[in-house]
């Protein structure tokens, strides 16, 4: 049996496709060969034309997806997954989807599409669980925050479908880039007075984090494309039906701080709920919180501290920042490689 393989992982998101390629050794060591983020709309097949060049010569490809939630294109989650399963048939390498049960299914054998939908968090938690068997993983991305309790190397979820995870704090629908300000808070202090927030999508969380210096202009432009960063102040002011001429810059900046604080509190509440539900299983001491994603430092870590956790570990320091930001893609690549090499917990 071979002692190494070249493994790739693809995380199909609603706006982009993240890809990692590693050389993986049977002892668990690996070398990153390649990583990329590519924009695509609707057709995974079109994106795969380039991805095939990126991952040419790989031994195995692992896949996970959340793009099936795009109701513009798919009537149901199952329809979305089926579309991608069909598109992947053009890839002439062994392809494995991670399921919500934490097992791999060959692409050509995939039939229970709902077991494949939004299973990216499973890949992340299984790989992190290999490194830190008892912890809470908090991965804050562009759109959502996953709060995953991991015990003995495996996620101990109270629900596996996203609608179930929303009810127990394991999925917090807030993120660094795409969250509408109107969905974060309903009232806001403006110049010392409380104002209702309009229910329009004038401003998103990316505006807030650019204004506060939590993300760079390069990251902002990379995710929001044609949205001018210079207008983020007036976009946020629009949330109270004003602009940056009617309101002072410092008042708008304070609005941004309130939005940011509410995001931290929402994620902290998710962490607290997840820990309380599993405290007896974790034992006497609180487990470490492992943070990842685009918001690892300024959202996930701050929320963990607010929730009373003293030990916070960064995936970006364990590996690198790209690994952290694209954790599901990196994880599904390495897990698929382990599966290909026949690596198990007993090895």
Strand-helix topology:
Blueprint: E1 4-12, E2 16-25, E3 30-39, H1 44-54, E4 60-65, H2 77-88, E5 95-98, E6 104-106, H3 120-131, E7 135-140, E8 145-151, E9 154-155, H4 162-165, E10 171-172, H5 181-184, E11 187-190, E12 193-196, H6 205-211, H7 217-224, H8 232-238, H9 249-282, E13 289-292, H10 296-306, E14 312-314, H11 315-318, H12 321-325, H13 327-341
Parallel strand pairs: 1-4, 4-5, 7-13, 13-14
Antiparallel strand pairs: 1-2, 2-3, 5-6, 7-8, 8-9, 8-10, 11-12
Helix pairs in contact: 3-13, 6-8, 6-9, 8-9, 9-10
Verbal overview:
This protein has a domain at 4-131 and 327-341: Nucleotidyltransferase, domain 5, CATH 3.30.420.40. The model has no long low-confidence stretch (mean pLDDT 91). The chain has 347 residues and is of the alpha/beta class. 39% of the residues lie in helices and 21% in strands. It is built from 13 helices and 14 strands. The protein is globular and about 70 Å long. The longest helix is centred in the C-terminal third of the chain and has 34 residues, at 249-282. It has helices at 44-54, 77-88, 120-131, 162-165, 181-184, 205-211, 217-224, 232-238, 249-282, 296-306, 315-318, 321-325, 327-341; strands spanning 4-12, 16-25, 30-39, 60-65, 95-98, 104-106, 135-140, 145-151, 154-155, 171-172, 187-190, 193-196, 289-292, 312-314. The relative contact order is 0.15. A six-stranded mixed beta sheet has the order 3-2-1-4-5-6, with helices on both faces. Strands 7, 8, 9, 10, 13 and 14 form a six-stranded mixed beta sheet that branches. The chain has a two-stranded antiparallel ribbon with strand order 11-12. The two termini are 14 Å apart.
